[in-house]
Amino acid sequence: QVLLVESGGGSAQAGGSLTLSCAISGYSFNCISWFRQQPGKGRGLVALLRSGDRSSDYADSVKGRFTISRPHHTLFLQMNNLKPEDTGMYYCAAKTSTWERCSLNSGEDDYNYWGQGTEVTVSE
Fold first, then answer.
1. Contact present, 5 and 113 (Cβ < 8 Å)
2. Which of 22, 49, 110, 120 could in theory staple to 75 by disulfide, Cβ–Cβ 3.0 to 4.6 A?
3. How far is Cα 34 from Cα 88, in angstroms, rounded to an integer?
4. pLDDT by residue (tens digit) across 38-51?
5. Residues of 11-37 as b/e, b for ≥16 C-beta within 10 angstroms?
């Protein structure tokens, strides 16, 4: 059984930091990502990691502030210099994909497995 379980959400002030975790079990995926759903919007991909070569990509809105990593079986998202617009539900997602199709162009429909989400609130 494949399970993705997020943790680490919470509240922070602008400029602060939070670290999200996603424990992945049941399968070894080669494309794992963090999505964000801001209030009133759909889910958008913010960071992805290709397990094969450990390459990563980031949405422009988080580049330079967020870092995705997976040292073992847990996926992390280190979020620094948080902004109020980072507020939302964060989901980890996974799929099996070619290197080329593990990209920022992928939408939520391209992913097969999802965690339950963890909420992040950033205040001024």
1. no
2. 22
3. 12
4. 989 999 999 999 98
5. ebeeeeebebebebeeeebbbbbbbbb
